[in-house]
Amino acid sequence: MSTSPSVLVIGGGSTGTGIARDLAMRGLDVTLVEKGNLTHGTTGRMHGLLHSGGRYAVSDQASAKECIVENRVLRRIAGHCVEMTGGLFVQRPEDSDEYFEKKLEGCRECGIPVEVLSAEEAREQEPYLAKDIKRAIRVPDGAIDPFRLCVANAASAVEHGARIETHSEVTDVLVEDGEVVGVEVTHKSGTGPYVHGNPGEVEEIRADYVVNATGAWAGQIGDLAGVDVEVRPSKGVMTIMNTRQVDTVVNRCRPKGDADIIVPHETTCILGTTDEEVEDPEDYPEEGWEVDLMIDTLSELVPMLKDARTIRSFWGVRPLYEPPGTGTEDPTDITREFFLLDHADRDDLPGMTSIVGGKLTTYRMMAEKISDHVCEKVGVDAECRTADVPLPGSEDFSVLRDYMDDFGLRSPIGRRSVQRLGSRADDVLTSVDPNPVVCECEAVTRAEIQDSLDTAGTDLNSVRIQTRASMGNCQGAICCHRMATELAPEYDEDVVRASLDDLYQERWKGERHGMWGEQLSQAALKHMLHATTMNRDSDPAATESGVDFAAFDDGAVADGDRDAHAVSEVNDGDY
Amino acid sequence: MAITDDVLVIGGGIAACTAALSAAETGAQVRLLAHKKSTLRQASGLVDVLGYAGDDGPLANPYDGLDELPEGHPYRIVGEDGIRDGLRLFDEAVGDAYRGGHTDDNALVATYGGTMKPTARYPESVASGLVSASGDMLLVGFESLTDFDAPVAADHLEAAGVPFSVRGVSLPFPKTFRADAKLTRFAKALDRDESVESGTVRSALADAVADELDGETRVGFPAMLGDDHDTEVRDELADRLGVPVFEVPTGPPSLLGLKLEDMLFDALDEAGVRISSGNPAVDFEADGDRIETVLVDQKSRMTPYEADQIVLATGGLVGKGLDSDRAHVTEPVFGCHVPHPEDRYDWSEPEAFGDHEFARFGVVPDDELRPTDADGESHFENLRAAGGVVGGAHVAREKSASGVSLATGAVAGRLAGEDATQ
């Protein structure tokens, strides 16, 4: 019997998993529910920038200061999720000197290390920057893999006794005697054939305290509890390039605007973004002009982007929040700070707090703040340890050695596997024999796929975000079906097939935003492989009407008979 | 001095080869101008003609579906005669290496995804594995070869209701390779019958499969049973197992596709077709509505190729016979008109297997396969098109890619040859 207070966290993004980890480490009895897979919401749909704080150093210094603090913490506790690329704020001739100076000054005020580079020095670091740039400011920006980060937080929470339920949607918030006492969740099969719990089953989960960490969806959970949470979801597009045109985060040094950042990420670059308020975080237009804007505007900084290949685009919604009455009109002006909304104080509804605003870089700090708050509410006196204890995978860097000998993997494959797995590499890569490559573009082997299945169930999109399989140039043309067959023999063929269809469709959706030039050619090949060669578009196993096998050529005449033609002609004559 | 021929065929795939063979039959001097490896490396090696048309399919007889095809479909232009002529040229080119020519009917062939598809011609190595033939089947996959999961494929075939029982097993391959070893490495080991602890690769494999055989009368492997010595490998395995052995067509690198490419090029040699390969045709010079020379980019200089008649068989989007940017779809060599929706989001459908416009992109041929401009007038009197560069067919849906290439290649090549030798 557990006697520790129980906490129910809603939302499996960076904030929710961060909170689950923090509270579980403090000894609380934590359950996290998420309606999709981990990172289903905003966390899985961002550009992966580990902020130095430079972006906010002029307009939002409170956020900037938080960013630089957490930037250092994450490099320490989540090393296997972070690539310290460094960042540049690049000034073009038409960008104001005054703002450049303000940026420099702001960074210094916020404790962000800076260095001014001449155009020549900047181009030495990033040769594809436009020839006419004026100068740049170097800051410690980086790239962070939000998927890996979330999965590691969830894994750590589970290690500390937490229960994590994905594909479990909160369908009601239980309020008794004017107090939140838990939630009702519906375990779903999702859009795909997921096997998670019992699809369709409705479960009441009671807890001493409930945390609403659903970001852009916080208003919807608020509605279920009968309180107003005024998040202002704002969409942004991100366009993925097929290669790394830059190895440093490149920002445009000007006040604000769309399409002003390029983040190198794994084998790709991500161009971002726009900032436009939307009504519904799940239903908003995704339009071609936004993609065009990314390419056209950012090629002012890096001209080769104009004709480079994009492999797909995706959109995310920021969970922006501002206190009632602020009335900021332009969403780009809304603060990136985070807010704890204790519904006891605010709405006279004890038992639940919502956390809104903020950003991925400060997820841990947000989790710490709200965990402090929850502990106070439930009467637990325990220190936060998340800033000091590394996440699973980031504990020990002695694993960075000669992977080839250790795992029988060619060096590039071994290196990339170890980068993804961090200190778990040994355990994972030796767990399967033989261990062939499943996804060639991203160098993912069977062992990694099998490892991700532990938490993914049959959700191949979860496998994808954990491993990067099917996220490379071919967008799963070659590996989707291989990923699916990794589900067998644990799952039956019909589940394998349905999971494949689901993953294939998800890949197609984002690919459409990049379908011209090389990528249209790639998409046409993918279509040919899956529709022509595999006949997956008219699969007889998936159709109602049976096939009249006897009506088809059974090869009999030709079978082993070199005179087949002659024989057949004679017979035709006889009849 | 320009290189001069009667007919110049630009391209290196099935359509180009067929066009060249067809033109050569008329007595014309033919040259094939191939840029690089064709897309056959990515193709199954099966030769489809028509498996689905309108709402019908899988079609037992491809000719039954012709009337269901839309106006402007290449088959509507070349007709049944064109298709038959293409198949005749194909059968003559590949000889006994392919089967299916004894009947008009399609066969059903299992492919690497565990599905089956209707096809008109199939490699001899595939013949004993037809799904439209009876006989219980054992499918063998390898743990280290992720492209083909035999147990899943077997269950998939069962789910489609095949009229025999089928079972799949995953075995360790007798020899261990690197994690990223491709199928070709496995084929090579069988070709050379490399040594392993318990003997050789072939004998060890046969022994392992024999242990699994349980009354099945045919055994299938992914198409990796040898490359240079494929017949020998297959015969030895069949001999040791006492039942016929067959191959299941795979994705890239497709050995069956590559072998087909070799056969077609051998046939070109035999027919006296000259071959220039390795460089792309990039431009041309015309006098009014006649193309005089085609310019080939040979790294540092442009080499002119002269011909009386030209056949454009550079492929579709996959083969780069069609190009596009954010707003336009183009045919890059001659700038032929390629109709397409203005908004690029109308080029594809949101559903992955939707009726995509891009699948039908291509030049618009007139009655004699000359590409036409937006007003329906032919661009050039001596330019014809064949294969994937021709629009109007959704070959992936229809399972008609090879057939369209064969039929348009045969007709375009013949007409070009006749015009050139008149």
CATH architecture descriptor text of the largest domain in chain B: 3-Layer(bba) Sandwich
- Proportion of residues in β-strands of chain B: 15-25%
Q: Regarding CATH, which class of the largest domain in chain B?
A: Alpha Beta
- Biggest interface, which chains? A-B, 75 and 86 residues
Tally of distinct domains of chain B: 2
Task: Label the overall shape of chain B.
Answer: globular
Overall radius of gyration of chain A: 26 Å
CA-based gyration radius of chain B: 22 Å
In CATH's first tier, which class of the largest domain in chain A applies? Answer: Alpha Beta
Distance between the termini of chain B: 25 Å
Percent helix of chain A: 25-40%
Q: What would CATH call the homologous superfamily of the largest domain in chain B?
A: FAD/NAD(P)-binding domain
Give the SSE layout.
The complex is a heterodimer of chains A (575) and B (422).
Chain A: E1 6-10, H1 14-25, E2 29-33, E3 49-50, H2 61-77, E4 82-83, E5 87-91, H3 97-109, E6 115-118, H4 119-125, E7 135-139, E8 142-144, H5 146-159, E9 163-165, E10 168-176, E11 179-187, E12 202-206, E13 209-212, H6 218-225, E14 231-241, E15 249-252, E16 261-265, E17 268-272, E18 276-277, H7 288-298, E19 310-321, E20 338-342, H8 343-347, E21 352-357, H9 363-378, H10 403-407, H11 411-421, H12 425-429, E22 437-439, E23 444-445, H13 446-456, H14 460-467, H15 480-485, H16 493-511, H17 517-533, H18 564-574
Parallel strand pairs in A: 1-2, 1-13, 2-9, 5-15, 13-21
Antiparallel strand pairs in A: 3-8, 4-8, 5-7, 6-7, 10-11, 11-12, 14-17, 14-18, 14-19, 15-16, 16-17, 20-21, 22-23
Chain B: E1 3-10, H1 14-25, E2 30-34, H2 74-94, E3 98-99, E4 107-110, E5 116-119, E6 122-123, E7 137-142, H3 150-159, E8 166-171, H4 183-191, E9 195-196, E10 199-200, H5 201-212, E11 218-222, H6 230-241, E12 245-248, H7 255-270, E13 274-277, E14 281-287, E15 290-298, E16 301-312, E17 323-324, E18 329-330, E19 383-385, H8 395-398, H9 401-421
Helix pairs in contact in B: 1-7, 1-9, 2-9, 5-6
